[in-house]
Amino acid sequence: MSWIFLLLGVMAEALSHVALKATDGFSRPLPAALVILGHLTAFIFLGQAMKGMPVGVVHALWAGLAIVTVTLLSALFYRQHLDLTAWIGMALVAAGVMMINISQGHSH
User: Fold this and answer.
1) pTM for the full predicted model
2) Which residues contact 14 (CB under 8 A, 6 or more apart)?
3) How does DSSP classify residue 106?
């Protein structure tokens, strides 16, 4: 169940970060409310994920998955595209997330 909470937290955080651009410096109330709600939701889900996983593992997975998810959503919503070097970096982040997942470091 911790993994489900972690993934929900990542999605809430990523959507919140993508909405942050639409706030125009927090001058637009609806996107600003989405950012605040998204961050609050993300922390609630991450707190639940930490009940069954170590803090360091949750944070590492959350950060890595959020980086990749925000990048993909930014390409989709804002047509922001990265060069090959940046995508190689994203692949390395994804590989790191997979390594953490298959390690025994996340068991009690």
Assistant:
1) 0.82
2) 66, 69, 70, 73
3) G
